[in-house]
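A quick aside before the break. I want you to see a complete sequence-to-structure record at least once, exactly as it would be stored in a machine-readable document. Don't worry about memorizing anything.
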Amino acid sequence: MKIAYILPVFPQRSETFIIREIKSLSEINIKIDVFTLKKDDSLFERSIVRNITYYDKSNLLSKIYRVIKNIIFNPLKYIKIFKWTLKNLGNCTIYDLFRKIRHLHIGFYLSDFISKTNYDYLYTHWRTGITISAVVNQLTGIKYSICLHANEIYTERQIDEWKFSNTAEIIVNNTYNKYFFNLITDYQFENKIKVIRNIPPNIDKKFFPRKKVGTPINLLCLGRLIHFKDHPTLLSACKLLLENGVEFRLVIGGDGNTYKLIESLAKEMKIDQYIQMIGSYNEDELWDLFQNADLFIHASGIGPGGARDGLPNVIIEAMMACVPVISTYISSIPEAIDNEVDGLLIPEKDPQSLYDAINRLNSDQDLYQHISRNSPIKAQKIFNKSNTVQLLKEMFNQV
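That is the input. The structure line, written in tokens, reads:
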């Protein structure tokens, strides 16, 4: 079996779950080629796929030639797809329209490559690949499925019905994403949407249930540094810890456009000496970070335009490492965490509640141990590599 993966960027540090997915499928002799719009500048995990086609590295004349050639040979399909793209634009912005038309033509370009190889299936993560895969399907007849992720479901302004009508299956990785997508599409694709979990990481360390919180409390927060992750709430809770004489250290890992804002706020609150910002990290470093943490904090909320997390991988990873998690109860996070059983859940944008939760686990040793014991059991129950690989294999076999 041979699958063509269509991805915006490959490989990416922030998308290790896709790398794990491709590796796991390769282990059962499913051959995968990747078609990606952008070449990552890092050398991160580049060796896992033998054949990668980079759109951004292609010669401009080659792009124009292949697109025009495919349009000339498929004029009626081009007109039909273009009409579909322009249909029901609604509150679509000029940027959205430009992006759709660009992806349409990238689909015509990639079809010239994909049609020359006997691929059994097309699969894409993220909305960038949806238009491209839908166009390739129209030109080649190869079945395709798509995997949607949190932000593109919650912030999508326009649902292009033709792309979803023609897909074999629509994959999401948690039940809330399924529920929300059904709501915004009036349940018209309910028979196509399926929950397939992300493949969990391999753990190269032995983790045991924690006994008690250390002094100072070692807090850990990992993930993209973007606005809806709501680091200001975390910093405000840390300020309350300082004001009430609770010793702490906070490690913040990840990169993003709020890096400078977090640094600035920490200085303004006079807590910067207790905070270490480590920037990006790889999977090997991840487990060392968990090893040294007493509590994992996830203060993410709902941002402008509805942007939010679904069920962040890093919460599951913390639970697998027996690190008690304090998180907001947005989206599908309660699917992983039963309050006071597998972690503590708090309202978003509420520094006092976060402060109280940290203090509670600091003072209640029995609850701390209880959560630390239960966390890996729940994480392993939800995220299971063999189950995910089997479901993907069954999907690809529907050729």
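Two observations worth writing down. The mean pLDDT is 91. The chain has two domains: 2-200+384-396, 217-382. We'll return to this after the break.
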